[in-house]
Amino acid sequence: MQDAPNAGRPLKFDGHDRATITSLACTQAPEGHAQWSVRLTADKAVELQLVDGIAPSTVFCMLKKRAPAAPKTPMVYRQADREFLV
User: Fold this and answer.
1) Would the pTM count as exceeding 0.70?
2) Is residue 30 included in any domain, yes or no?
3) Which residues contact 32 (CB under 8 A, 6 or more apart)?
4) pLDDT of 63-78, one tens digit each?
5) Is 69 a member of any domain?
6) CA–CA gap between residue 77 and residue 3 (Å, rounded)
């Protein structure tokens, strides 16, 4: 039994590309810059020939943390009766 091929175009950047760009963004920023911006990271990745070309918005999506969203209202925990108050 085999799955049918996925619809749509294939991914342009694989896991190795994502890891390379993430590791680039984790290094010290170039001289004259306090920190990496997504535009600077995209330009440097192309300059170092890590990728053929990449948009800053793609770098942003690669570096965006995928943590679960925080609750909209703060929750208070009462120690005495161990129940949450909203």
Assistant:
1) no
2) yes
3) none
4) 886 655 555 666 565 5
5) yes
6) 48
